[in-house]
Write a structure and sequence with these properties.
mainly alpha, 14 helices, 43% helix, binds heme C
Length: 254
């Protein structure tokens, strides 16, 4: 119910900045046929760019820069075999989505925080998926002429949620609380890899019992978590002790 003010700032400020940035990307683009540009709109930008030599969009640029940068995750032994193997795939599993949602432009270019969209990662076992309205907050104005964006409006018109295909899943008999991990400072990328560099999301870690238990028993290293996110840890992170967690069966199994 109540939201800590620190988190609130964290979420809202980047979001406002991102809307402004989104607007400036559009203003800079000769192809943007938008009314938001006020006075500029009257000067209607020269129609559509030619099919060849069309300027690269912000999405294409971010995807190109991200391509190949997100490594596969660690291998982990387990007597069990990794639930998503049964769903088809396991590590590297990357189902096609109903809308080609690109994390790179939203995270790397627009600097949106993960919890702007996965809004309950701090307070619930389930990290949450963005409502259609969250997308429309920008896409009513941004890139509305593109095929993938038109699909968003179609789901909104039908009042239907976007049927995203689940990538990460543990079996029903396993209890996985996002908030416990996120509040302990475990970075999203420790478990999901560099989602910000994945033009199409793939499963990074095995999610099997050996993977969970080896982190719980050896302890989470804050420095490794920062490296996994693609940053260089500072001296405080390097000095921070490993955070161990329980190896009690009933904590993870109902
Ligand atoms: C840190 C979390 C965690 C702990 C602690 C844990 N497990 Fe698991 N366990 C899992 C996960 C995740 C899976 C699903 C594995 C998979 O899909 O490969 C699993 C799967 C299993 C399975 C099913 C294996 C199969 O082949 O389907 C059994 C049995 C099991 N665990 C027993 C135990 C026992 C006994 C303990 C205590 C000694 C224990 N677990 C402790 C996370 C945990
Ligand atoms: C603008 C909203 C938005 C932002 C910001 C965002 N995501 Fe997502 N995320 C989505 C949408 C929509 C999907 C479903 C489509 C897909 O898989 O690409 C998704 C899917 C995912 C998935 C796969 C879900 C599954 O089914 O297993 C993970 C993991 C994830 N995001 C993590 C992150 C992380 C980590 C960040 C920050 C680095 C982040 N997201 C930032 C919207 C967002
Ligand atoms: C903060 C504003 C903002 C939010 C919120 C946002 N987007 Fe975007 N999105 C953008 C901008 C800016 C681009 C880059 C457009 C370009 O390439 O010029 C973009 C690009 C895209 C593209 C690629 C378009 C193409 O060129 O094919 C898709 C698809 C997309 N967004 C879907 C979504 C979905 C789905 C959501 C909700 C989960 C969402 N966006 C939320 C601003 C936003
Ligand atoms: C300790 C490992 C770990 C961390 C840290 C973690 N996740 Fe996850 N995430 C998982 C596992 C495991 C699943 C599958 C959970 C399940 O099936 O219940 C998952 C599932 C998801 C999903 C899919 C949920 C759905 O309902 O479709 C999203 C989105 C996601 N995580 C985003 C995030 C974001 C954003 C962060 C950081 C704020 C994060 N995760 C941090 C391990 C992690
Ligand atoms: C990268 C390290 C890491 C991985 C991987 C990881 N965990 Fe954890 N987990 C932690 C840490 C650290 C804590 C302790 C949080 C705290 O102290 O509050 C924790 C806490 C938990 C708790 C709460 C324990 C309690 O005492 O109530 C559960 C349940 C849990 N993890 C389940 C899982 C399951 C299931 C998986 C695999 C699907 C998993 N974890 C994978 C680091 C990890």
């Amino acid at each position: 119910m109540t939201r800590p003010p620190r988190l609130f700032r964290w979420v809202v400020i980047p979001a406002v900045a991102a809307v402004a940035l989104a607007a400036s990307i559009l203003t800079a683009s000769a192809r943007a046929p938008l009314a938001v540009q006020g006075a500029q709109a009257a000067v209607a930008p020269a129609a559509v760019a030619p099919a060849t030599g069309a300027p690269e969009t912000a999405t294409q640029k971010a995807n190109r820069e991200a391509a190949g940068k997100a490594p596969r995750g660690p291998w982990a032994y387990s007597g069990a075999s990794g639930y998503t193997n049964y769903l088809g795939g396991g590590v590297g599993r990357s189902p096609e989505q109903p809308i080609k949602f690109p994390h790179p432009v939203h995270v790397n270019t627009l600097k949106l925080n993960c919890v702007y969209c996965h809004f309950s990662a701090f307070k619930s076992p389930d990290p949450g998926m963005p409502a259609v309205g969250t997308c429309l907050g920008c896409h009513q104005l941004v890139a509305g002429d593109r095929p993938e964006i038109k699909k968003i409006a179609e789901y909104a018109a039908k009042k239907a949620p976007i049927p995203w295909v689940r990538v990460h899943k543990v079996p029903e008999y396993v209890h996985f609380p996002h908030m416990r991990h996120v509040n302990a400072g475990v970075t999203c990328q420790s478990c999901h890899g560099q989602i910000n560099n994945m033009p199409q999301v793939f499963q990074y870690a095995s999610l099997n019992m050996g993977w969970c238990v080896s982190c719980h028993v050896n302890g989470y290293s804050p420095a490794d978590g920062i490296r996994a996110a693609g940053y260089v840890p500072d001296s405080t992170a390097l000095a921070a002790p490993r955070k161990k967690a329980t190896y009690d069966c009933s904590n993870c199994h109902y």
